[in-house]
Amino acid sequence: MHALPVHPTLNAALNGLSTLLLLLGFIAIKANKREVHRFFMVSAFLSSTAFLVSYLAYHFTQLVTPFSGQGPVRTVYFVLLISHIVLAVVVVPLVLITLRRAAKGDFESHRAIARITFPVWFYVSLTGVMVYWMLYIAYPAAA
User: Fold this and answer.
1) Residue range 24-54, pLDDT digits in tens
2) How far from chain centre, in Å, is Cα 62?
């Protein structure tokens, strides 16, 4: 089974979409537009879920792509990558708990955990795009 070459770009697009949706959801709740906030956050969840499915499908069929950057940028890349991976694991239960509390109408505890979930989720989705850019655009591996 071979990976489709579009997967990394699709994954970055889904991460970028999640980042945008999260930002719009944050803006909506700050403007006290709860239904708009709900729409954007559920959409961000769906986009992130689609990313995860696509990411796993790609990595089950593709070997690791080496980072070809050298010097200080290599350190920057690996700091971003490692923090992205660690927080991506952490954010999954945070997102599920946050959404569950909102769905149950427990908005006080939803707000409390969302203050943690949002910045972590936003960081993970944004750094996913940054890692893609560094790996496939700025410093692509030699063919």
Assistant:
1) 999 999 999 999 999 999 999 999 999 999 9
2) 20
